[in-house]
């Protein structure tokens, strides 16, 4: 009896000690500060930060596995967001492009009972590679923004919808902005009273930022833009993905295989192309182990590109025209992102130097689009990045309205 009592007491003390150690290890003091890059003279950014507590705080990842960029990235790519997917009414809009291709976007509309909130804004999401409005994290983010009073349109990358066949032999690419332009113009025509808010995730951010930098008139339809976890320069990112550092070459293989899954769903359409495009070598395409191999054998030929591969990467990179973007821009990257190493952060830092209304946020942890938070093991369904985007957006829109009211802009 006495031994049992001693055992129970010791077990309780060990459990208390374990919890105490966990709390100490999870302490904010052991997590590096979030780095904020912006022009010190920017009242616009300073006013947003003054009313954005989440941006000023450290991002605290999940205790047991959140400090691994690999685990965050893999879980995000496999699971998306934890918890039950919310049922929501959305409407798919299809638009014929000039070449006969059907381009689509999903429209997530807020509850009509949420009145008087953000009626003048419409969020346009450009998701990551092979993603659509059906993708879990995109769906969850759109629902979250609906609840916060925003309507959301999501670009469906051409060819990525699982139950939809392409009507012309082409799918999305890393830098082609034609499909985005069709959707922007359709939204602007149907919702002319609203300003667009562009939010790009990973590859989608590369496409969005390239679109905004290509022509100044493209920016005129947008109030602001956000770029989450992108690599900015296709040439440099491609070279880095061929290295084994931080297992990037392994991720390159996985991304290539996912691209091949999309291509294989539409193989028949590509095989029926005009005679001049019968040069597609399917054996070489399907044996691709890296994106540069797939692009050489498939992408360049489908889009009839004349340039050499790396010249094409340069032409399609948003880094070429990034510094031409004049509207407010919010960019986020994580230091432990296995796909986007810190050497690529010089591009958003350069934009900060050229755009006084630009804010670049760098976290210590988060992986590639993960940013899970919520406890020791199981994270919340809404992520840190979701909350930060909303907080920044509300603050930026308030600042823009204040500037407009006093005639600053």
From TrEMBL:
GO cellular component assignments: sperm flagellum; sperm plasma membrane
Sorted UniProt keywords: Membrane, Transmembrane, Transmembrane helix
Keyword Membrane annotated: yes
Any Pfam family hit: Abhydrolase_1
Transmembrane segments: 6-25
Catalytic residues identified in the record: 202 (charge relay system), 337 (charge relay system), 368 (charge relay system)
Domain AB hydrolase-1: 122-374
GO molecular function: acetylesterase activity; monoacylglycerol lipase activity
GO biological process, one term: medium-chain fatty acid biosynthetic process
SUPFAM superfamilies, sorted: alpha/beta-Hydrolases
Family: Belongs to the AB hydrolase superfamily. AB hydrolase 4 family.
Protein name: AB hydrolase-1 domain-containing protein
Source organism of the structure: Clytia hemisphaerica
């Amino acid at each position: 009896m006495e031994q049992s009592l001693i055992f129970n007491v010791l077990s309780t003390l060990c459990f208390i000690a374990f919890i105490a150690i966990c709390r100490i290890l999870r302490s904010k003091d052991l997590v590096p500060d979030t780095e904020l890059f912006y022009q010190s003279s920017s009242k616009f950014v300073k006013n947003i930060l003054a009313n954005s507590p989440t941006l000023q705080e450290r991002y605290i990842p999940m205790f047991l596995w959140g400090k691994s960029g690999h685990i965050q990235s893999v879980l995000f790519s496999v699971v998306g967001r934890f918890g039950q997917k919310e049922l929501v009414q959305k409407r798919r809009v299809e638009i014929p492009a000039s070449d006969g291709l059907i381009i689509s976007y999903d429209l997530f509309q807020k509850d009509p009972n949420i009145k008087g909130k953000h009626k003048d804004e419409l969020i346009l999401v450009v998701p990551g590679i092979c993603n659509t409005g059906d993708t879990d994290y995109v769906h969850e983010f759109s629902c979250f923004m609906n609840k916060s009073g925003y309507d959301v349109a999501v670009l469906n990358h051409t060819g990525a919808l699982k139950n939809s066949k392409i009507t012309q032999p082409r799918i999305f690419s890393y830098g082609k902005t034609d499909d985005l332009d069709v959707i922007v113009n359709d939204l602007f025509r149907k919702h002319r009273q609203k300003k667009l808010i562009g939010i790009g995730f990973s590859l989608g951010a590369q496409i969005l930022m390239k679109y905004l930098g290509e022509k100044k008139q493209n920016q005129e339809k947008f109030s602001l833009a956000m770029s989450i976890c992108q690599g900015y320069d296709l040439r440099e990112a491609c070279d880095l993905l061929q290295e084994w550092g931080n297992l990037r070459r392994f991720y390159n293989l996985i991304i290539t295989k996912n691209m091949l899954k999309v291509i294989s769903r539409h193989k028949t359409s590509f095989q029926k192309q005009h005679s001049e495009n019968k040069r597609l070598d399917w054996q070489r395409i399907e044996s691709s182990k890296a994106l540069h191999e797939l692009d050489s054998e498939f992408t360049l030929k489908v889009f009839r590109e004349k340039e050499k591969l790396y010249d094409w990467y340069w032409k399609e990179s948003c880094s070429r025209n990034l510094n031409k973007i004049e509207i407010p821009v919010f960019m986020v990257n994580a230091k432990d992102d296995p796909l986007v190493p810190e050497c690529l952060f010089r591009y958003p830092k350069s934009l900060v130097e050229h755009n006084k209304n630009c804010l670049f946020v760098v976290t210590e942890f988060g992986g590639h689009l993960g940013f899970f938070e919520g406890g020791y093991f199981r994270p919340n369904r809404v992520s840190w990045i979701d909350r930060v985007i909303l907080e920044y957006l509300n603050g930026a829109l308030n600042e823009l309205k204040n500037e407009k009211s006093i005639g600053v802009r």
